[in-house]
Amino acid sequence: MSTYGKTIRLTMAQALVRYLAALRVATDDGEAALFGGVFSIFGHGNVAGLGEALYQHREQLPTYRAHNEQAMAHAAIAYAKAHMRRRMMAVTSSIGPGATNLLTAAALAHVNRLPVLLLPGDIFVSRRPDPVLQQVENFQDGGISANDAFKPLSRYFDRIYYPEQLLSALPRAIQVLTDAAQCGPVTLALPQDVQAMAYDYPVEFFAPRTVRFRAQAPAADELQAALTLLKNARQPLIVAGGGVLYGEATEALRSFAEKHGVPVAETQAGKGALAWRHPLQLGALGVTGSPAANLLAGKADVVIAIGTRLQDFTTGSHSLFGQAKLLSINVNAVDAIKWQGTPMLSDARLGLAALSHGLQDWRASAAWHALALEQANSWRSTVDWITSQREVSAPALPYDGEVIGAVQRSSIDSTVHDIVVCAAGTLPAELHKLWRTSTPGGYHVEYGYSCMGYEIAGGLGVKLAQPDRDVIVMVGDGSYLMMNSEIATSVMLDRKLIIVVLDNRGYGCINRLQQACGGAPFNNMLEDCLQGPLGAPAIDFAAHARSLGALAENVKTIAQLEAAMQRARAADRTYLVCIDTDPARTTEEGGCWWEVAVPEVSQRPQVQAARAEYEQARQRQKV
Question: Which residues fall within 8 angstroms of residue 192, CB to CB, at 6 or more apart?
């Protein structure tokens, strides 16, 4: 029966939820809901209007309660990343601190180009009760609320002043969330009085609709320019970024690399694009990169950057492959034109296929191919050796690389089944080099924003997206203390995480960076902080996790960690294992320069020496 011309009277909040619940997406397992659910912490500003609407549609669009607004947004973002941006979640909060707690997560999603729909409550449009509880009053502009802070952090922002605005705002929001080039956070600010207003909406607005993801093919002129550049190359190198994964181009990447003899290095976002054991896999690139990848980056004549933002950790602050010509294959024009590269605006899969077809039998030079195979194999052997170490002589403590090895040994095939989740500190560097994965998505590290506190919340989002895989959250004590509340949520939702806390008693990563810049150890490690007469606390992370409903234990040795990991894998709920680690030791192999500005004037000779090294290193930058 046709619904054309028919209307249904709904509140704005009811219409919004009904629209989201009707959206579908095609997956390998058939059609699924585009939105996997809504994370919510209710307060005034969203409990009455949106809360009632979510209750009415709780079967079609599940509502998940969290314990921290920033954390629940991190979980929603991780859910989308784990689905390669093909499915996503919405997040709703109250009007004041609940809304501003979402800002860090909005910035994280913006930097990492990940979709999340933010639905913060807002103040009254009518202004009758102004100023309401939690309202930020601006003395120069009466129309500003705290939610205006989302504007620079959103790919699309709208404030819904009238219920009928949804008819244009919602399709625009979904377009941005599902567009490969524009993808990022969308904010719809929802004034609490407008949420409760009713309107006669067209019935067809809520008809089930399957969202289609577009894949852009390269333009003929840009393809020809790329082919000309590559045909003159003898020592090409592929830099695989997150766009390879999001564009479902991993098979196209493998085929291109093999056919044309081109080695592959990976960014943080692109790790897992090529299986760990592939002969042409050089490993991580850049500041946290392998010696194999960085060696070839320094010798390449053409770098093919695929789906990467070319951030400073990838390029060594533009010092790593400045001698090479750059070909950028990207759906985003801003990324494609960075650093005077030859741009090819294209989906990664279609772009690689078109390039391969146009190149025909062209291959990298035999000597370059042989060097790549040799270096890649050597690095794999080094990683195998580092991660196989089981004994640490007392009183020395194990370091991150040995812990990573123990975690991976605890699974029959961790390279296929496990998903590791991490974000900030030393661990992303060690994992980028040492974690071995053979499946896209097996490596989930947020490093575009390097956000402490993402780890456990992100792990929850990954587990919601991939419930049949073991999700291993590796986190330092500093990040754990910043945000750990979603341990309780994981227990409540029966979404088991395995959390490995590496306790180095402070911010070990920044402590090393501080000293590398000539600074004295100060305010990073607990022992170097201002303290009262009781001194620094002795924190029992296992006891804390147990208080949130998880199972947990502390271990001291790598052997004990391996045994604990077996218990964690067999457990029926979230399980935390904590081990003390060395704050000073890191993997020596690999890495390259990273620009961190050193004071030009200082009385400390260490700072003066670091400044001299800094000025010398800057001479290698390509500008």
Answer: 44, 45, 46, 48, 49, 95, 121, 122, 123, 124
Nearest to residue 267, comparing CAs of 251, 256, 246?
246
**How far is C-alpha 610 from the geometric centre of its chain's CA atoms?**
32
DSSP per-residue string spanning 584-623:
S----SS------PPPSS-S-HHHHHHHHHHHHHHTT---
Cβ-based neighbours of 42, under 8 Å, separated by 6 or more: 51, 94
578: β partners: 501, 554
Angle between helices 427-434 and 400-409 (to 10 degrees): 50
Fold of 387-525+536-580: Rossmann fold (3.40.50)
Helix (H, G, I), strand (E, B) or coil at 345: strand
Is the Cβ–Cβ distance between 347 and 249 less than 8 Å? yes
Alpha helices in 327-365 (DSSP H): 333-336, 348-359
What digits encode the pLDDT tens for the residues 590-602? Answer: 999 999 999 999 9
Q: Domain 8-211 belongs to what topology?
A: Rossmann fold (3.40.50)
User: Model's pTM, two decimal places?
Assistant: 0.97
Q: What is the pLDDT of residues 485-507, one digit of tens each?
A: 999 999 999 999 999 999 999 99
Do domains 8-211 and 387-525+536-580 share one topology? The answer is: yes
Crossing angle between the packed helical segments 69-82 and 103-112, to the nearest 10 degrees? 20
* Segments of 299-434 assigned E as strands: 302-306, 325-330, 342-345, 419-422
Q: Which amino acid appears at position 424 of this protein?
A: A
Q: Decide if 217 contacts 184 (C-beta within 8 A).
A: no
pLDDT above 90 coverage of the chain, percent: 96
CATH topology of domain 220-380: Rossmann fold (3.40.50)
Domain boundaries, the chain: 8-211, 220-380, 387-525+536-580
